[in-house]
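To whoever is on call:

I kicked off a structure prediction for a single chain this morning and the downstream step that reads the tokens threw a length-mismatch warning. I double-checked the sequence; it's 408 residues and nothing unusual in it as far as I can see. Pasting both halves so you can look.
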Amino acid sequence: MTLSSTAARAALPAGILIGCAVATAMLAMGLRQSFGLFLAPMTEAHAWTASGFAFAIALQVLLNGISQPLTGQLADRFGGRNVIMGGAVLYAAGMLGMALSDGLPLFTFFAGIIMGVAVSAAGMPTIIASLTRMLPENMRGRAVGLGTAGSSAGQFLVVPLAGLAIQGFGWQAALMAMAGAALLMIPLALPLSDKPAPIPAGGAADSETAGAALSRAMRDPSFWCLFFGFFVCGVHVSFLTVHLPGFVHSCGLPLYVGAGAISMIGLFNIGGSLLSGELTQRWKRRELLVGIYAARGVLMAGFMMVEKTTVSVMIFAALMGVLWLSTVPPTVALCARNWGTRWLATIFGIIFLGHQLGGFTGAFLGGLVFDRTGSYDLMWVFGILVAAFAALIHIPVRDGPRPVVATA
């Protein structure tokens, strides 16, 4: 698809496109981030172990990463709208199954397997890739920033509503209500009709097959720099999401301080994502990623050196929130610039797999370190070291247009 045809399709409804994409990302992220709230009431009601419940959610994260390239290729072939709608149906089925499960194996099937695929199909990578493909290049960075901010807004807004529903109506009714809310993603996805237009005779890079495009990308060192950089992003995000409340409590602070820190991260990431989207359009995306990862390392090192008080924890959470998902807009932009938009969801899906592998590592390794040593100190050191690694590995990333690859 040419830039002019993309602009023609997106010029009139650009505001509607972006608004629907943001609302879809908000709902998808908010629903999935609410599952931790169900651990205590569901394990108590069913006499399950906390580790059994946690395994199902960890399986969801891992399967999300593994299935993302597959759902990405489906989006590239048949359009993001169809895949997101299918994901919304799986979202509803998965949460309804979670509500009705009376044993851990059945719960693991719905919460881990069904929801793992659902989150891939109706998740941020699919939504952002569809939006990127439908907008002209000069609007993409801002739009991706808005979509990422929508995900953070979902974390900040939907999670408290889920908590109120649990408190007011019980965990089972809350899950059923969330299943119904997931179906709202179907009408929201209607404008994202990004199925690639037919390629005229003599088309070049856009006429590549998925396998050829992915092979071309994976032979490029820049691809692996982005992959392992996103792995580090996943390590940071999962470690802090899962273990920051426990770390704060181990420092003698009340549990609500840790919960407030997670909420603060989501709130400040709204601004951080918007800022990153704007800077993606104005700066070199390579330098932006180097700066983000280096800033994470400096921030984590500084946090380890100061006294842990409510104020210091909240300041750390706010600053980390600015950097939280700010890696997404420049990473997506580099994928689009270096390897085109025809198979963007597929290529970015592989890179997102790196993020989820890092997420599994951050969550599991954090618990392992704490079990073996009785503290999180070594994990914080690991987080600082991998931040430095991520900053360095992005330096050689190519940040310019690739030559068009003609196909026979």
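Update from on-call: the warning came from a stale cache, not from the record. Cleared it. Sanity check on the structure: Confidence is low (pLDDT under 50) at residues 1-12, 197-205.
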